[in-house]
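Following up on my earlier thread - several people asked me to post the actual chain instead of describing it. Fair enough. Here it is, all 64 residues.
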Amino acid sequence: MSLTISALALFGLLLAMLLRSKTLGAGSAIVAVLFGYYLSRTGAAAPIDQVMAAISNAIPSLAS
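Reply from S.P.:
Thanks for posting it. Predicted structure:
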C-alpha cells in the first residue's frame, strides 16, 4: 500500500500542529507562510521542487 501526500499538505499540517502546541506563535506562522509564498514565486522554486522530489523518491527505498 502506498500513501501519497503533497508537500503543501504535509507542511500545512506541520504548521497547524506547531500552532496548536504553542511552539510557534501566530506572528511566526504568518512569516513562515509569507516566506513560503514569496519563495515559490522566485527562481529558487524549481530547484526546491527537484530536491523535494528526490527526497520523496528516496524514502521508499530506505524503508525496504
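The chain has a mean pLDDT of 79. That should answer part of your original question.
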